[in-house]
Amino acid sequence: MANKKLKKLTPTQREYQRLALSRMPKRSVAKNSLRAFLAGGLICLVGECVQQMLIHWGGMNERQAANPTVAILIIASVVLTCLGVYDKLGQWAGAGSAVPVTGFANSMASTAIEHRSEGVVLGIGANMFKLAGPVIVFGTVAAFAIATIRLIFTQGG
């Protein structure tokens, strides 16, 4: 694919592309993977600590503590996004901060903050769901597909 793009470029553009690629800093996959693992693990550890506190001090069982735990993580993510802390974590950690539910909350809050000057409906509402819409659609389709596959295999056995 990259070769097809190079064929359409002029010789000067090809030379520039080669120069740009030679000057581009090398990405350390191992270092980035370690950072993502540590950040994602830390977020999950915080979630587990919150859940255990709700179980031990809140008088809840594991099932009852699950939803409040997710809500607390989402609220914490939104607050940290508003303070600019979560974005710095995201720059350092990469996908490790984007994959958990806190990353989705960060994306939604960032979009809302960015478009607040355009108004509540046309700014925040319209732009925030440009991100959420595809996530919800693909999540629903994936859940339907998995449920269908499970239904097929449990009916046959």
Q: How are helices and strands ordered from N to C?
A: HHHHHHHH
Low-confidence stretches are none
Shape: extended
Return Rg in Å: 22 Å
**N-to-C terminal Cα separation, in Å?**
45 Å
Q: What structural class should be given to the helix and strand makeup?
A: mainly alpha
Strand proportion, as a percent range, falls in: under 5%
Tell me the number of helical segments per DSSP (H or I, 4 or more residues long): 8
Tally of DSSP β-strands: 0
Mean pLDDT: 87
Main sheet attributes: strand count, strand direction, barrel closure: none
**Residues in helices, as a percent range:** over 70%
What can you tell me about this protein's structure?
- By secondary structure, the chain is mostly helical.
- The protein contains 8 helices and no strands.
- The longest helix is centred in the last third of the chain and has 37 residues, at 120-156.
- The termini are far apart.
- The model has no long low-confidence stretch (mean pLDDT 87).
Task: Give a short synopsis of this structure.
86% of the residues lie in helices and 0% in strands. By secondary structure, the chain is mainly α.
